[in-house]
Design goal:
Blueprint lengths: L1 E3 L9 E19 L2 E8 L6 E11 L2 E10 L17 E8 L3 E9 L1 H10 L22 E9 L6 E8 L12 E10 L2 E11 L10 E12 L4 E15 L16 E16 L2 E12 L7 E11 L4 E12 L18 E10 L1
Antiparallel strand pairs: 1-2, 2-3, 2-4, 2-18, 4-5, 5-6, 6-7, 7-8, 8-9, 9-10, 10-11, 11-12, 12-13, 13-14, 14-15, 15-16, 16-17, 17-18
Length: 349
């Protein structure tokens, strides 16, 4: 839905778009301490959401822009994050054809955008989600108080930078975060090299450490198959937090790695104009003395019912090693076991 010219006293061309996505289905999980879990859940392939975004033409190629987006659970009608609103995105900024885009507010990191938009054939959703093993928890996905700048596109090349203020009383460095992304998209090739750095200190509880994540992601469309690849390095405290604390109720709980590498190899295979098979293999290589590695295999199928609606089915299985505790989740949930099956429907508007 688009509302044009919404302010009578504004002479420049303006518009506001109301948009959203609703996604729900059945999830069946096995292998965890919770036993066999079957449920109706929301946000399996993509988190259900309601958003508003707008632009105002300021002239000379310059526009004012904003976006407000909240996550919802359509299985029970609640917000996906209690006591929040517009927790997914909330920013305002300026966009110039020649000078690039500058935005301020709660925004996605370059790290997560590379995972979800380039690296993962499952788009960070379904049982095969890259988030099951890669470092995508908390501020690695999106961060508040952020200033983000993106250059214009130069023959397929662009650069992005992020700086988020920690805003903790008594310290200018505690909790601060910065990121950098180098992007290339031209023809069948899409590639990104990104870096994310977060100061893990909190006032009164210094950790004397930072979390540091580097990721290279690429995909190439061969027409008969679209190939995906990603390789990441995670170093430092909280650089690769576990999606679940101890889902398997081990006597000794799993420990989040402070030095690990991540690998993904995947594919999308178009069967017809409306059908695609998704598949991936992921490996978490824990380089600490605990050696808590994990491997995941996943396969999925998506059928377009229309341009806005698709039905899907997906399955994934994780093999944990040496007391590792990784779980098969989806876009919205961390999961409760090492195996999961999804079937559902997603509609955007």
């Amino acid at each position: 839905m688009i509302i044009a010219g919404f302010a009578a006293n504004v002479q420049a061309q303006s518009n506001v778009t109301i948009y959203g996505l609703v996604d729900a289905g059945l999830v069946s999980e096995r292998g965890g301490a919770a036993g066999s879990v079957t449920k109706v859940t929301s946000g399996i392939g993509s988190q259900s959401r309601l958003g508003f975004k707008g632009t105002e033409d300021l002239g000379s190629g310059l526009s004012a822009i904003f976006q407000l987006e909240t996550g919802v659970k359509i299985d029970d009608g609640q917000l996906d994050s209690a006591n929040t609103i517009f927790n997914r995105q909330a920013y305002v900024g300026l966009k110039s054809k020649d000078a690039g885009t500058l935005t301020l507010g709660r925004q996605y990191t370059m790290l997560y955008n590379a995972m979800s938009q380039v690296a993962d054939p499952f788009g960070a959703g379904y049982a095969g989600s890259i988030k099951n093993l890669f470092a995508a928890k908390g501020a690695n996905t999106r961060t508040s108080n952020a200033i983000v700048y993106a250059t214009p596109n130069f023959d397929g090349f662009s650069v992005e930078g992020l700086y988020a203020l920690g805003e903790q009383a008594g310290s200018n460095s505690a909790g601060r975060q910065f990121g950098l992304g180098f992007n290339y998209a031209n023809g069948p090739l899409n590639a990104r090299l990104v870096y994310n750095n977060k100061n893990t200190d909190t006032v009164g509880k210094p950790t004397m450490d930072t979390s540091r994540n580097t990721l290279f992601a690429a995909n190439y469309d061969f027409q008969v198959v679209k190939a995906f690849f990603a390789y990441g390095a995670d170093k430092g405290l909280f650089s690769a937090e576990l999606p679940s604390a101890n889902a398997f109720a081990y006597k000794t709980a799993p420990v989040a790695s402070i030095d690990s590498n991540d690998l993904l190899i995947g594919a999308q295979v178009p069967v017809t104009a409306n059908d695609v098979i998704m598949a991936s293999y992921m490996r978490k290589n824990d380089k600490t003395v605990l050696n808590q590695d994990a491997d995941q295999w996943a396969i999925g199928y998506s059928h377009l019912l229309s341009k806005r609606t698709n039905a899907y089915v997906a399955y994934a299985k994780i093999k944990n090693k040496n007391g590792a505790g990784y779980t098969v989740g989806n876009n919205n949930e961390a999961g409760s076991g090492d195996k999961a099956f999804n079937i559902g429907i997603r509609h955007s508007f």
